[in-house]
Amino acid sequence: MKNEQFHTACFVFFCGLFLLVLLGNAVRAEQAYVAEVFETQAQEAQFEHITKQLRCLVCQNQTLADSSAGLAEDLRAEVAARIRVGESDNEIFTFMVERYGDFILYNPPLKMTTALLWLGPFALLGIVFLIWYGVAQGSFRKNKSLFKGERQPK
Amino acid sequence: MKRFRWLLYSLPLLFLLIVGAFLWKSLSNNPADVPSALIDKSMPHFSASNLLTGKKESSSVLQGKIAILNIWATWCEPCRQEYPLLLAISRQAKVPLYGLNYKDNRETAKNWLRQYGNPFIVSWEDPIGKIGVEWGIHGVPETFLIDKKGVIRYRYTGVLTGEIFRKEFMSRVEVLQNEK
């Protein structure tokens, strides 16, 4: 196979793999626990919405909605009970944070202490861009003579 | 100018080394070591059954003196590892030790205390973990240090060892004893 064909084949292969992974994530497995029952659809929606924003403290990369840990079950029951008596999202999140701290929120709140966490990647991207720009400018200047048809002296 | 370029090119490597050092250090972090949100707050009071007598007792007995509350369960394997230490703490009687039997079976827990000894002055029942949620418990064993005013001053997540007890609990107890 020629070099170019090989590169194209690799590219298509990895694109395919990537798409497969994306598709795989879209097809969610069945929940590993008994779901909570609600009277209204609004309550169900609220439950789903809240439990997807809370972290399971046992399996810490999972949300409360996904985890089958014992503590997750308890906390889901607590959230469900509060929804049934009509508590708002805010009230429920406040309840959880009061007892478990900010860490129980799956998305860390934007505060002074987490500013670095949220803005860090963008700042990093900015720095990398600056370095790239500086290096590119330098090499552009260095190669400018080539555009005039001259060879670079070795 | 050539020397200057070396510095620029070494920046990514330097950055990699610094980040690498942080990541290496965090490999030995304990993910369960989430600081308690209740530190320096008044303890969440409760009224629960005394495991041995079955009578309802209030948690207010923890107030008025420095006390330690240990969260335990018979199904918790690591709890067994710290059990000899708990017995020793109760024998030494320097700080009163109380227990919260978390999501356990009453008979199993009672038999356990009878068989292995009871280090707790009182052990409350928390069969469905309601009290646990109030105290921000996310694993067993956990041990709380409560001051004379009923304020939670420290929480340790994990198996207690003699060293941790001395370093984290007794050192704080000495400081707290001088408080009003």
Can you give a write-up of this model?
Chain A is mostly helical and 154 residues long. Chain A has helices spanning 3-26, 41-51, 70-84, 89-100, 115-147. In chain A, α2 runs antiparallel to α3. With 180 residues, chain B is α/β, with parallel strands linked by helices. Chain B is built from five helices and seven strands. In chain B, α3 (106-116) links the parallel β4 and β5. In chain B, 32% of the residues are buried. At the A-B interface, α3, α4 and α5 of A face α1 and α4 of B.
Offer a quick outline of the entry.
The complex is a heterodimer of chains A (154) and B (180). By secondary structure, chain A is mainly alpha-helical. Chain A has five helices and no strands.
The CA-CA distance between the termini of chain B, in Å, is 67 Å
Strand percent estimate of chain A: under 5%
Question: Biggest interface, which chains?
Answer: A-B, 19 and 21 residues
Number of helices of chain A: 5
What characteristics describe this protein?
heterodimer, A: 154 residues, mainly alpha, B: 180 residues, alpha/beta, five-stranded mixed β-sheet, two-stranded antiparallel sheet, 5 helices, 7 strands, 18% strand, elongated
